[in-house]
Amino acid sequence: MSYELYPVIRNPKYDFIGQSYADSYPNLHKYPATMIPQIGIELFSELGINKGKLLDPYCGSGSSFIVGLECGLEEMYGFDINPLAVLISKAKFTKIDLNKTKNLCQQLKESVYEFSKKADTLDNLQLPHFFNISFWFSKQVLLNLAVIKYFIDKFESDDIKRLLLVPFSETVRECSYTRNGEFKLYRMKPEDILNFNPDVFGIYFNKLEKVIEIYEQYYYPKLTDAKINIDFGSFQKRDDYYNVVLTSPPYGDSKTTVAYGQFSMFSNEWLGIKYARKIDSMLMGGKPAKSIYQKGLIKEYIGKIAKNSIKRALEISSYYFDLEKSIKEVASSIRKNGISIYIVGNRIVKDVLLPTDQFIAEKFEENGFIHLFTYERQLGNKVMPSLNSPSNKIGEKKSTMTKEFIIVCKKI
Ligand SMILES: C[S@@+](CC[C@H](N)C(=O)[O-])C[C@H]1O[C@@H](n2cnc3c(N)ncnc32)[C@H](O)[C@@H]1O
Predict the structure, then answer these.
(1) What is the pLDDT of residues 385-409, one digit of tens each?
(2) Does residue 260 line the site of ligand 1, with CB under 6 A?
(3) Is 81 touching ligand 1 by the criterion CB < 6 Å?
């Protein structure tokens, strides 16, 4: 059976070349594969969306909520399985008492420096226990991080605590023996470790100051009466509830695309998440499928991969089974005439380009929607691993994702 493909319109208006996330909303914390809010703001204006309830079932660090706030939506709901993503989003989009927070930051600074002068108190401090901890952190760094965490934990307000934990999480990463600037965890070279002696307190309090500044200048003024609810876990269906869905789902399983769990592992461990090391396997496509995905237009492409490697075909199938199930639930949660907007990249596996954009349009059509349009945009500003080895042949690297697709469907 041959399938007619959904038309794709190349729309340079959505390239936003040279622009980044930080142009309008500096981020409080690095996060992989963030969506630039400019895309959503432009789309909402094009589609005349300026009120109602918004859902992002894969909200990450929360760029859809910026769009919702800029465009006047009254209620917003987000979900993510990665606790670090929820921490960042909630910190950005929860209104807190700024004066109180600034006073607490000052108190925190004094307490931390005072406490660390006393060697005997330091000895009594409880250090976190996680696997291989001394492989990734020096004893001194561990102690200093533990002092900061000890005092943050003492604060009563969860909302304020969250904002203080955001720079803590970045400090954890920066002061570990990981090579910076990479999503995955690679240890520094032994000779670099010898000279690595980070000033944990200095780094944390500098970051804290910056986070408060950005929050005060860019996020706080936008936090009006709109209700923003961010939940930790996978999306829960709610029949005929939302007016619009704006989301950028993962483009494949975490193991072979963007390892959100690995990127966040130390932060999550310091936050006390017991299953921090299992997160990648809990995300979309994280568990191997028992059978190969055999439906619709994607079948042919997975079939080509299967000829090369059944194992890869099963891994890829797992992603499409999960995405299909999730779209079914999202579709039933959108009201009549509601709009779904998905932003994805099509990945290459074993030299086969997988048309995930087409899959999404097809699944929404199977679940009571019509496909309105798909825009293709040039990917100039997303922080993604841009080179990989799609054929898994050593030394053969290809640019994987240079385009993104914006798939817009309407419930009828
Ligand atoms: C492309 S990122 C979203 C980025 C987001 N738009 C932003 O600007 O930060 C995809 C997100 O989906 C989350 N995720 C993956 N599988 C999930 C699932 N089954 N349920 C909920 N969230 C999931 C990942 O943790 C990741 O944060």
Answers:
(1) 444 444 444 334 444 578 999 999 9
(2) yes
(3) yes
Q: Average pLDDT, whole number, for the chain?
A: 92
Please give the distance, rounded to the nearest whole angstrom, from the Cα atom of residue 61 to the centre of ligand 1.
8
Q: Classify 248 as helix, strand or coil.
A: coil
The yes-or-no verdict on residue 380 having pLDDT over 80 is no
> What tokens appear for 60 in the block?
């990450």
What is the number of H-type helices and E-type strands within the chain? 16, 12
| CA 292 / ligand 1 centre spacing (Å) | 24
Kindly state the percentage of the chain with pLDDT values over 70.
93
- Name the strand (E) or helix (H) holding 336: strand 334-344
For residue 82, give the ligand 1 atom closest to its CA: 25
pLDDT tens digits, 186-226: 999 999 999 999 999 999 999 999 999 999 999 999 998 89
Task: Write the DSSP string, 180-210.
Answer: TT-SS--BPPHHHHHT----HHHHHHHHHHH
- In ligand 1, which atom is closest to the CA atom of 286? 16
Residue 361 above 90 pLDDT? yes
Q: Is the CB of 175 under 6 A from ligand 1?
A: no
Rounded distance, CA 48 to CA 396, Å?
45
Compute and round to an integer the Cα radius of gyration of the chain: 22
Report CA(60)–ligand 1 centroid distance (Å): 5
User: What pLDDT digit, counting tens, does each position of 334-354 carry?
Assistant: 999 999 999 999 999 999 999
- Token pair 């993604």: residue: 384
DSSP per-residue codes, 50-66: -SSEEEETT-TT-HHHH
Q: Which atom of ligand 1 is closest in space to residue 34's alpha carbon?
A: 8
Q: Is 79 helix (H, G, I), strand (E, B) or coil?
A: strand
Residues of the chain with CATH 3.40.50.150: 9-93+233-411
At the top level of CATH, the class of 9-93+233-411 is alpha beta
Instruction: Report whether residue 38 contacts ligand 1, using a CB cutoff of 6 Å.
Output: no
Testing ligand 1's pocket by substitution, the residue of 90, 278, 283 carrying the most ligand atoms inside 8 A of its CB is 283
